[in-house]
Design a protein that fits this description.
single chain; 10 strands; binds fe (iii) ion; binds zinc ion
Length: 279
Amino acid sequence: MLNIGCHLSASKGFSHMGKEALGIDANTFQFFTRNPRGSKAKGIDENDVKGLLKLMEDNDFAPLVGHAPYTLNPCSAEPRTREFALEVLMDDLVRMEHLPNNYYNFHPGSHVGQGTEKGIELIAGALNFILTPTQTTVVLLETMSGKGSEVGSTFQELRTIIEKVNLDRKVGVCLDVCHVHDAGYDIVNDLDGVLNEFDKYIGLDRLRAIHLNDSKNAFASHKDRHEKIGDGVIGLHAITNIIKHPSLRSLPFILETPNELPGYAQEIKLMRASFLLAE
Ligand code: FE
Ligand code: FE
Ligand code: ZN
């Protein structure tokens, strides 16, 4: 079975997201752990969490993905910005333990002129600061498109970060299809080659989730604008190859396409049908 869902709004709570997911035939989803701009998180309602855990168990859900605010920058040049990132990351990891054994995804950050090497150093330092041996959450580094001074747009950079992390078993990677395409990995014409390179530098066992997005921009544009499945330059054929690839097909696929719920429902239907037809 294809494990697929989409990004959902967390504003009405965990159980509500679970019901929304069921309503669009999803068996996973992603949510922001707090306002995407990084403000204070709401308290956790234990009954609300219990409701979601029960719903997930009853309906064979794949792991969920909590997404950190995208404004966090653990490799900022500004010490206060880095400190804020650490506070949010630590607090989010405590909160994620209310939903054990799921994923917490974050954008590695932008080095803002300090250089990639310094950026990598600071990101690995942040991970060494926040990870604990007893946590059940696996923290995922998202592959980035390489806009501005983003760190993590090459598999080599992600590998170098992970190499510097002591509790590296708590770290994985989330591959964003739009981002790797925009970063210059040719998933349209050479998916096997890209996955071989991922395996060579990072190891496919680290790949834990996929952000399934088409792209508005050209190959290697370093732009990062998501498009609906089939409406972008990646296209339905290449995206179908991704969901049915033997190394990927059992992972959770999260749609982050420009859609409201009905659009997501349609895309999930399309992806489930393409997955079955392609067998
Ligand atoms: Fe993201
Ligand atoms: Fe993404
Ligand atoms: Zn993106």
